[in-house]
Structure formats: C-alpha cells, structure tokens
Design brief:
Layout lengths: L2 E4 L2 E8 L4 E5 L10 H7 L4 E5 L16 H14 L5 E6 L1 H12 L4 E7 L7 H15 L4 H12 L2 H4 L2 H13 L6 H13 L12 E7 L7 H8 L5 E6 L6 H4 L1 H12 L3
Parallel strand pairs: 3-4, 3-5, 5-6, 6-7, 7-8
Antiparallel strand pairs: 1-2, 2-4
Organism: Microbulbifer donghaiensis
Pfam families: Abhydrolase_1 (PF00561)
Protein name: Pimeloyl-ACP methyl ester carboxylesterase
Amino acid sequence: MPTMTLNGVELYYECHGKGQPLMLIAGLASDSQSWQPLVEELSRHYLVILPDNRGTGRTKPQDIDTSIRHIADDCMALLDFLGLSSATLLGHSMGGFVALDCAIRYPARVAKLVLAGTSAFNSDRNNLLFRDWVSYLKSGMNTELWFRNVFYWIFSRRFFEDRETLTDALRFAVDYPYPQSAAAFEKQVDAIREFNCREKLAGINAETLIISGKEDLLFPPEDCIEVLQAIPSTSIRVIEDAAHSIHMEDPQAFTDCVLHFLGNG
C-alpha cells in the first residue's frame, strides 16, 4: 500500500493510469474509494491520484489535527512526494473546499480546478445538520440507520426507487473495512464549519468547472453556482437526476463533464 509520511501523518494514496496529473479530493467521511466509479475511465487519459484525506480510510492516525488548510497542505505535499509541479484538482463537497484552498494559497500548482457539489463556505443549516450526525454517531446509533439518514441528504429520489442499489450501498458502507471514527468525523465537521473563502474567490486564476446535481439538498445549485461564479474563469454543468453525490449517481455524465472540460471529451 503506497503511503507518504509527513508531519506525523502517514498518508495513504493510489495512482492509476498515466499522463497529466489529476488529483481527486474526497468529501466529508469519504476516502479514495469513493471515486471508484470514475477511475477506470479517467485513468485512460490521466495520472489519477487518489489520497485518503487525514482522518479517513487508510491514512493514519485518524485522530490527527484536521482543518481544510491541513488537508490542502497534505495534497501539495503528496505532489512534492510524487515529483509533480502541478495538477488539476477535482474536489467534491468538503474536497471542493480543499481544492479551493489549494488554488488560493498554491496558485502555481493548480493547473485547472473542478468543483463538484460544493461552495466557498458551509451554510448554517448544513453546519447544524452535520453536528447532529456527529451526535448520532457518539450516541451509538445503529450504523446502518446512521448511513440511511445520511443517504436521505446525499442521494436523489430516483436512487431510493431502486431497492437493490440502496441495499448494496448500505451494505458497502456498513461493511467497509476502513471505517472513520466518530472523533475523526467530528474533526472534519469542525473543519468544514470553520472554512470560508468567499472573499478570496476573485483572486483564483485557475480555469474552473463547476458541477452541480440538480437535486442537491446540501449545496443547491442555484445558491452555490452564484457564489462560485466569483471565480473569474468558470464554466457550469448541472446534472439532471442527481443530488449531492453526483459522481456516484451518474458517473458517466460526471466523467463526460470532466473530460470535456479537460479537453478529452
């Protein structure tokens, strides 16, 4: 298992394919494996880099200090470790916060930017919701019930009409061999609450693609697109019949958007 050790973090990562580097940065409670529906196609065109963010997956220890800035620094350190001067960054949800922080603080290292299901800050409603999820975890709530509650917020209505898919997704989440601890989840929730880069968006010089799911409840497209369009060079894609977890619900449409933006579609 490839790992990189820096500042007390043993960062797990995977690399697939070859070509120009494309780093995929996962969202809250997610790790490198959340990108699996995209990896095969994207790795035909790019060197796809998949880190497990601090506090998730096979990155150790899970109880390490966590902030958006910390995770962004980890991503840049991974590029250094791999001998890469820059990469396109694709961030989903919290991963979008991380990608934005990289673009603001490390502009020369971000070739292009893809922001999926995200914004420049978290809403008050989302912050309260995520704190509730922390409380449910700490209370010892049944794991399957906890994931089902999260799924109501991240998947579209259509997703719940396919009972087999729902059952498989719940079973994968419950049986995942590298679960996130409640303490690590709480640290990520706190990191999300503390991040706000809205006033710095106009200084981002990377060409940016914004991808939204039309049914996203956490980061509604009508709100988030308006915020993110403060970035000078943006293009927008809204994917029908998808909610917050866009790349899981419609990986083909999502991949097509990315490849077209990067010149391979």
